[in-house]
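The following block was generated as part of the benchmark described in Methods. Ligand: flavin-adenine dinucleotide.
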Amino acid sequence: MGFNPGRPTSTGRIDIVSPDPAQPPRIQPNYLGTAADVAAVLAGARLIGRLQQTPALRGLTLGPLAVGSAALTDEALLADFRARSGTVYHPCGSCRRAPEGQGGVVDASLRVYGVHGLRVVDASVFPNITSANTQAPTVMLAWKVTELVLAGR
Ligand SMILES: Cc1cc2nc3c(=O)[nH]c(=O)nc-3n(C[C@H](O)[C@H](O)[C@H](O)COP(=O)(O)OP(=O)(O)OC[C@H]3O[C@@H](n4cnc5c(N)ncnc54)[C@H](O)[C@@H]3O)c2cc1C
């Protein structure tokens, strides 16, 4: 049993670490970096714990669970979550579409601030993460920007 917080509020960062473009950047996801995200994870884990205790699910499980979340403190639950959780491969927003003064990299037409003739058109320009899968929104974004380019905007 698992769950996904669909609207995380933590933001990470990506930094260029070398003038050599072959060197990978430093990526700091900063998962669970806000109190709201920690609260969402604890609430989700507590809900799973209650579901595990229901007669319906106890009738389906063969033995005790490896982690009985109902018995754990908030600190232990969070540590377990940090140890065993993973992403669902939806990184986005690393070149966010936003005003330049608010950390944006591209404008509303996805033009890169300060670089003439360059647009970024992929999941990296999402202003924030979608609450579901990212592939279809990426295709929709590409479609929309194709229309802008063809219209000369
Ligand atoms: C394992 C996995 C499972 C996923 N499952 C789902 C799912 O079920 N549903 C869903 O909606 N989304 C899913 N996603 C997320 C979805 O695939 C991505 O959000 C989406 O592909 C992002 O599109 P993009 O164009 O931003 O990046 P990408 O699809 O990564 O495209 C980037 C492209 O740029 C190319 N490229 C990179 N560097 C260069 C370069 N220097 N020069 C030229 N080309 C370059 C790459 O080869 C690649 O083709 C999954 C992702 C992963 C990794």
